[in-house]
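Internal tracking record. Fields below are filled automatically when a chain is submitted to the structure queue. Please do not edit lines marked as system-generated. If the sequence contains nonstandard residues, flag them in the REMARKS field before resubmitting.
Queue: standard
Priority: normal
Entity type: single polypeptide chain
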Amino acid sequence: MKRVLMGLVVGLLLSAGAQAAGFEARAATPAPALRATDLKGVPKTLADYRGKVVLLNFWASWCPPCLREMPSLERLRAKMAGRPLEIVALDSAETAEEVNAYLAKMQLGFPILLDPDGSNTKRWKVFALPTTFLLDPEGRVRHVLTGPTEWDEGEALDVIEVMLGEARISTR
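SYSTEM-GENERATED OUTPUT FOLLOWS
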C-alpha cells in the first residue's frame, strides 16, 4: 500500500510537470538521525561521513524518476573523485534482494544503504521519491530537493560546488 501511495505522489508530480523545481535552501539545522545498513549488513550512521559534504538521496528501485537520475549521480561521483563529497543512496522500504536486482543492471560506485522498514524515510519526513538532502561537513541539512535532477550539471552542480567551497573555507 505504501508503494502504491508513494508511486501516486511521484506520478502526480511528474504528470503536473513538476521536475525538481529547484533546491530549497535551509538554515543549517542538525540532520535527523540516520540508522541504516549497507548491502553487506554493516550498520551506518551520518557520523561515518562527517567532515564531507554529503548528498543523501532517498530512492527506490520501483521509482522511475529515481532510476532516471541514478546515472547522473554516478557521473557526479566520478567527476568529484578526490574531493570531500560523499554520495549516499538510501533505498526506501525495499529488501536487499530487490535492491541487488536493480544493481545487477546498474553499477554504482557510491554507498547504497537500506531502510527496509522505512523508519529513516519517516524520520527525515520524505513524502516523495526521489528526495535528496545536501548536508554540510558538520552534518547539518543545508539544501533539499524533491524530485529528480541531473546531478552532474546545472543548478545541482552549482549548489554542490558552493557547498564544497564553503567547506574548504571553514576547514582553514
